[in-house]
Amino acid sequence: MAKNDSKSLELVYKVWQDLREHFETNDRSESIETVVSVLSDSGHSSQDIHDVFQNDPEFDRIVSLFFEEDVNRDNKGKLRLSAVGKEDRKLWYDYHGYDKEPLGTDTRIKFCFGNLLEAFVLLLVKEAGHKVTECQKEVTVGEVKGHIDCLIDGELVDVKSASPYGFKKFKDGSILKGDDPFGYMYQLSSYGKALKKKIGYFLSIDKSGGGLNLLEVPLDRVDPVQRIGYLKEIMPHELPPSRCYEEVRESSGNRKIGFNCKYCDFKAECWKDSNNGQGLRKYNYARGPEYFTHVQREPRVEEDFF
Ligand code: SF4
Questions:
Q1: Which atom of ligand 1 is found nearest the CA of 270?
Q2: Residues 118-129 pLDDT 10s
Q3: Are 186 and 280 in a shared domain?
Q4: Which of 21, 93, 102, 111 has the smallest C-beta neighbourhood within 10 Å, fewest atoms?
């Protein structure tokens, strides 16, 4: 390990030592996982991290898990309760081990920030005098495993950090009416099924504005057992299920992928037959990139070959 690399690791360790005072043991795992994934992404090996964090058994355990099992990203041949509500085709690519788009450091930091915020929300709940138990308890439905966030005063609660756009779905309850692209209703309902609960709660925080919301969720709106049975049947198929979303047509005659596909890790593979077999074409607009499936009129912005 180069001297500067060692210094940056030592700095991360010092920051972590300060931060850890603010989290109880049960809340730390996800934050440590994210820190470890950022360090791994920056080229630090398992040995480097073990050397610098050697006095911290929690870090030691998660570093070992991360490097031995690649806990965060490799879902080949696996289903997880946290993902059973996701789109069929997206899950199929994941189940079959297709390469995901690499996470940029900005995305990893965003995840880290989200995890820290969620731990912070639980800290506030405890400070307010509520009893937080069963954090990260493993549960199983139809042989598919998952981990609940926690019980608060005995009630099933899933903590979510969300963008202002995502937060609105919790606040106005539209997530209960099907506006749920991440499949959170199936996730919470499967935990409820495992714990024999009829009601659960989303405790959400707006990452930008800091607003908090507690949404009561009847857990009979979706059927996780039926969903898991269906997924187990279709996942091993040789061909992927049909696409989850249609293309978006523009008045110019151009067609592009929609919002949910734009953020999908498998978009390049999924749409590789677009543009007459050329695959997606990415153009960098001021509002962010757009991915075209058919270009009739060349957009007046730079094309980015990805
Ligand atoms: S790119 Fe869109 S259609 Fe394809 S798997 Fe992802 S979400 Fe589904």
A1: 4
A2: 888 988 898 899
A3: no
A4: 21
- Count other Cβ atoms within 10 Å, centred on residue 87: 19
Q: Which residues line ligand 1 (CB under 6 A)?
A: 87, 89-90, 243-245, 260-261, 264, 266-267, 270
Same domain, 22 and 88: no
The residue whose CB lies within 8 Å of the most ligand 1 atoms, and thus the one to mutate among 94, 264, 291, is 264
* Ligand 1 atom nearest 258 alpha carbon: 2
Domain count, the chain: 3
Q: Which amino acid is at 271?
A: W
Domain containing 182 equals: 76-100+117-242
**Within a domain: 201:** yes
Whether the CB-CB separation of 31 and 115 falls below 8 Å is answered with yes
pLDDT tens column, 102-144: 777 777 677 777 777 888 898 889 889 999 999 889 999 999 9
Whether residue 106 lies inside any domain: the answer is no
Strands 150-152 and 132-133 come out as: antiparallel
